[in-house]
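Structure ticket #2291
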Amino acid sequence: MNKEIPIFFTIDNGYAPFLAVALNSAVKNSSKDRMYHAIVLHEGVTLENENKLKALARNNFKIDVIPMKNNFDALDDRMSNRLRCDYFTLTIYFRLFIPAMFTDYDKAVYVDSDVVIADDIAKLFDIDIGDNFIGACNDLSIADVPPLVAYTENAVGVKAHEYINSGVLLMNLKKLREEKFEEHFLNLLNTYHFDSIAPDQDYLNAICNGKIHYLDKRYDAMPNNARPVCENPIIIHYNLFEKPWCYDGIQYESEFWYYAEDCGFIGEIKEFKANYNDEKKQADKECLELLVKRGIEIPENEITFKKMNENGVKIRL
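Resolution: structure written out below.
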């Protein structure tokens, strides 16, 4: 097999060092018999950091670093006419536009940048998800937080065991284009501006529920002290505040530091951690408390995904 495997990432300049760890792990665990193409969509990455990221490429593993705005500008007129929200808002949802922007691909992987790819990413790409829109894992990071479980069911309108994490996606781009996913998303966004705690993730769940292939948890293994370590993880996702470049004692931290050592940014990463002081850790704690608080409050709003669906609005495709 020699088909190119497209892998999408999105970052700003501050996240370049951590993306380098993800890329380094992906490159090192790639198969010599396959071709890979990492497409890094970014805002404000410096030329120096861009070159350091590109330096991780190999003969069978291309790395392109492309400004996000270039892709928004390249959208066809049909879609551009519907871009009513400001540019900043749309970047939050950037992964949702990949099908419309990259029409050369029928299938692709999207991965958040706070990951280690501990095995060949081709294993994910090769999974047959049939006519489903996406392949993804159940979001176990919320499973042990009752207010967030209630939020998924009472605001998003998706059962907790069906609610997926959008940090690792196997995307059926062809099917998403055929069903005019981005048009439906923009119509909902512009009409209702649903309040949510995880914007792109909640829209994906609300729209795609019933058309999701659920992946083995090894494809989105997250640190979680309430659960045992996942055996032989394929993708480790340092979700929310569980980041080894901020805290000690994080599950799977040894894997992160292994790939960080020769990623080209080890000095910057160690400096970042050394400067992650008590004030920043307190801010993390307060942010998590706010997340839970909003998870309790949002279901009481007059407009939620669930309430609009119950009122006859087409939410799911």
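Closing remark: The longest strand covers residues 4-12.
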